[in-house]
Write a structure and sequence with these properties.
- The protein has 287 residues and is mostly helical.
- Helix content is 59%, strand content 3%.
- Strands 1-2 form a two-stranded antiparallel sheet.
- A hairpin with a 5-residue loop joins strand 1 and strand 2.
- Helix 4 (98-106) packs across helix 5 (110-124).
- The radius of gyration is 23 Å and the shape is globular.
Length: 287
Amino acid sequence: MADFNERKKAFKKGVDQDDARRRREESTIQIRKSKKEDRLSKRRVGGFANAGAGGAAVPAVMQGQEASLVPVSPSTPPGSAQAHPVTDPQMMARLQELPRFVAGVMSADPAQHLECTTHFRKLLSIERNPPIQQVIETGVVPRFVEFLNVDGNPPLQFEAAWALTNIASGTSDHTRVVIETGAVAIFVRLLSSPNDDVREQAVWALGNIAGDSPVCRNLVLEAGAMHPLLQQLTENSKLSMLRNATWTLSNFCRGKPQPNFDLVRPALPTLAQLIYSQDDDVLTDAC
């Protein structure tokens, strides 16, 4: 028996089931954390496949990329369009048409408002290096914010919200322009819009703004965005809303210094439910 026990000690110990399960769980959590860090805190809305509010296009989820054009010279203000010269012939041609669409946005014709805002939205949805600064310098951003308040025209609200979402996906300076025009409080109000597409676009816009910095995150939270956002995270919500609202919620809760706990405390029960989601995107942002 003594010889048997000695030989038994010489065998390699098998993997304990509890230990193996624990290591798998730790590995899974680490993978989710890595994926979450890899996801941008801002996203630009692209894609035109489906019909949205009143026939407008519903965005397909796409990660945005900030403009990375090289300044012309050290003396050129970094925030100006001159600091980001456009060299693509097709883009140059589209930018030359901007005065016509600016005139339409600024006109008193509701039909022109929708057509021209849609044009700007498509321009801002370009995947690489959208001309965000050039659009800002046309002066249309305050007008887009005005369109957010046209409750009787959901397609116009949707297009304006989409355009502003993509502007907020750019640099911190671009996001600041959207904030300074008073868009945050209106987007918070639109979280209660009766139109599903307008409501979802407001969720996305607030996620981009909150994802810019802790200062912007706190501004959105202090505007009262948490409660109406949590109302979008129900078992009856469509998958795209669940994904976007969970991503926005993660931007409300992340960053250092950490947000005021009293402002994010209401999210705890919802997060406790989201971690059981079967959708990888929802799970990644909820954990």
